[in-house]
Amino acid sequence: MTPGDGNAGQVAAAWRRAAAARARAERAEKSAQRYEAWAAETGHTPHVDLAAALRRSAACHRSSADLQEAFARRVAAWGQGPGERPRFMSGVAEVCGAESVALTLVDARNSQLAVAASGEPARAAQDLEFMLGEGPSRDATTHRGLVFASGEAIETRWPCFGPALTALGVREVAAAPLDTAASSRCLGALAVFDPRPGLVGSRAFDDVVGALTRLVLCDPDADPELYGGTDHRDSVQQAAGMVSVHVGCRVDDALALIKARAFTRGVPLDALSRAIVAGDLTFTREGPS
Amino acid sequence: MTTPRQHLADIFVELAGGNPDEPLDIPLLLTSLVMRSRELVGAYACGALVTLDVSPTEAYASDEGTRELVLGAHTEGQGPGPECRRTGRPVPRTDLRGRVARQRWPQYTPRALGLGYTQVAARPLGGHDHAVGSLTLFGSEDMPLTDEGLRFSQSLADIVAIALLRDLELNRSRTQTGQMERALISRLAIEQAKGVLAAQRSLSVDQAFVILRGHARTHRRKLTEVAREVVEGQLTL
């Protein structure tokens, strides 16, 4: 796709989604006011709880509108200049005031199913988590709670992942689970790298996480593909299939071999996988050749 | 109203669906709605019709005779309850002894009169965009429906409707989570199968996909299943 192709349409669609989210926020806000008035009249706690829930919901919708607007502005600006197509997650990073952010969706066994990153170093960090099987997103989805580490704590908390992350220049990382009351398990996590001071643990951050959960899942505008920004690591999975045949092992083991090779050689997982798929690199029983 | 404050507060909790951490007991909630409406509105009897998602319509009432009346009205598609559920708009208080009622609901009206009701009104459960049901209120000679009572009945219906709609949304979100996960896992298996097949037959991954898809089509099987069998070595193409 060249800049301009369907670009105006995508920008318009993002503005429309933003407007719809603002309208939803206003409706929730109005209902909340009604319940608050009712609660004041009757002194009744369920009304207070309901009003609070509606206010939280309104805040999530408003945050969702902010994310859509940030995306719309970026795509509009990109249409007039060179460079890479803006990702939805880069708008999320902007709203969070973080260097970069990454969203990870996981299966019931907590394995990464798909990732979406705003750019570097988040992208590299998610690959490191995928390769090493430890890191903030994994902890956030496992314990269904907020994870935060900065400075040396990064390296002590994750002995393999930590040093690799700080080597990327990251000084602070946080991850929050994407959770809903309806789900029996956590769907994924949002990781933020070098966030602005005070973001983690703030109401605004909770709202962004809530907005993203809805955006991936339950909103009328829900799109797990994040408008084309989700990476399924297709090449990596294809390469795992090929290596399993060449080496004569299970696909899971082949995937582990590829991850180990990429990590020890310091090669991006995707580049290594593409080389395997293209036939430029072959794994054999004896090792790669 | 003579109802003590605390009693009223308890009723609100009950109608809001009780503890939010526990699954919503829909029959219990709707039974509470009709019983509490009769008590608080001062109606002679109350009934409710509810249709949730794809489930069949269910009828609840403050007594068995009324339940049969409300359910019969639904089956025949006649009466204030079904009308209100369909349009999402209230049916105003109507005198069952008058000509309007007889003309509008010819089968329904004599049955309602036979149960001793002289007045009827209906209030929607949920707004007119997404009404999930209706609450029907009956008055008698001794217990006529009052303006204040009817206004109050709409508030009770609103509380229950919010609980019902929230539960519906929760269920839909649950379904959606499952669907999303299956789609992602299925994609994983298909990409892996492409790799396996490409390596086995020295093909490109695109050519491998054509073979996978072709096999699934000819054998009328799901692509995901075929892919999984290829990955697990149970199927060689």
TrEMBL record, chain A:
- Per its UniProt record, what InterPro entries does this chain match? GAF-like_dom_sf
Q: Which SUPFAM superfamilies match?
A: GAF domain-like (SSF55781)
Determine the domain of life of the protein's source: Bacteria
Q: What organism does the UniProt record list as the source? A: Streptomyces typhae
Q: What is this protein called?
A: GAF domain-containing protein
Automatic annotation (TrEMBL), chain B:
Sorted alphabetically, which InterPro entries does this protein's record hold?
ANTAR, CheY-like_superfamily, GAF, GAF-like_dom_sf, GAF_ANTAR, WH-like_DNA-bd_sf
**Keywords, alphabetical:** Kinase, Transcription, Transcription regulation, Transferase
Q: Name one GO molecular function term.
A: kinase activity
Which residue intervals define the domain ANTAR in the entry? Answer: 170-231
Matching entries from SUPFAM superfamilies are given as:
CheY-like, GAF domain-like
Key word Acetylation present:
no
- Asked if the record carries the keyword Transcription regulation, the reply is yes
Protein name per UniProt: ANTAR domain-containing protein
- Source organism per UniProt: Streptomyces typhae
